Amino acid sequence: MNAPLLARPVALRVADLGDTIDRARIGAYVQEHPDATPFHMPAWSVAVAKGCGQRSHYLVAERGERGIVGVMPLTELHSPLFGRVLASAGFGVGGGILADRPDVARALADACWSLAQRLSCPSVEVRGGPRPGPEWQVDDSHYLGFARDLAEDDAAELLAIPRKQRAEVRKGLENDLTVSIGRDAADVAAHYAVYAESVRNLGTPVFPRALFTEVLHAFASAADVLIVRREDVAVSAVLSLYWRRTVYPYWGGGTTAARRLRANDRMYFELMRHAREKGCTRFDFGRSKTGTGPAAFKKNWGFEPTSLTYYERTADGAAPRDASPLNPKYKMQVALWSRLPLAVANRVGPWISRGLG
Fold first, then answer.
1. Ranges assigned E (strand) in 51-191
2. What number does CATH give the domain 3-140+309-321?
3. Which sign, positive or negative, has the C-alpha torsion 129, 286, 272, 232?
4. What is the per-residue pLDDT across 220-260, written as a single tens digit (0 to 9) for each?
5. Residue 276: helix, strand or coil by DSSP?
6. Where do the CATH 3.40.630.30 domains begin and end in the chain?
7. How far is CA 96 from CA 36, 124, 154, 215, 236, in A?
8. Cα 338 from chain centroid?
9. What CATH topology corresponds to 143-307?
10. pLDDT tens digits, one per residue of 11-20
């Protein structure tokens, strides 16, 4: 009886994310899909487009009366330094194709590649989801993900942290630090000041401040900023997303003083507490490059790494894009950037980083 419906061809289109009804329909589909991430939500694509000035191309597959049967969020990224790329999802650590059936996934992948050619993007990066097709290269060795369930209370959470790291957390709890959580302009400013200094010290350019503002606006109560202060001076801060009872601490960092004060350790423990109060049961520590300090830091907290699978397709004759700061060819630039005056780094950084994606 369902055979006629299943035999109908898939209709593909680029969504109008400015249309409230279209966004609501897509959002409902994403919320119900078991493999979805917050980076599949239309809110993410809208925030990225507004915050970084890049174009969103959100692919939607529909089949007759069944409505939406698949989606693929895409961001068209332009950079004079790193070239052009179509990314799924732009500025996200997740993304890729969501589909009800393999034939729908293949149709979305083909449409994505055709779109990239029309947009003169020689490369497409897909962060997660099913493999788009045999033409796509698989990368499952460069990035690790870290996630685990939250404990039932603070005492149990401390016990879930390995002994050495637990001692660092206890020191952070004992230090004279204050914690606040909010979403207003003052919170964004405090977070941005801390985050900008943190990434400058690591030798990477900071994202535009508008990106953080737009993400907070688009996700509303499902996003906030947690700030740790010492004598009213912000020393650690993190912007987090809350989705499907999971907290995603996404953009976090600390000033030079944070390490001495164990402010970052205090920050993440306080976020675990706050997430439980919001009804979360899982903590997603995000991705880190294999063999790096951030990966080791997350393992010290008791998080077991899992390999993240990404895909890439590059036009014939074009070189794959590699904008990672760990690329050896950027070693000198990273070293120089980490020594820039903060005011200079904050002025130039957003112009560079908006094309990284």
1. 55-56, 59-62, 68-72, 75-79, 83-88, 98-99, 123-127, 137-139, 143-149, 178-182
2. 3.40.630.30
3. negative
4. 999 999 999 999 999 999 999 999 999 999 999 999 999 99
5. helix
6. 3-140+309-321, 143-307
7. 9, 11, 35, 19, 32
8. 23
9. Aminopeptidase (3.40.630)
10. 999 999 999 9
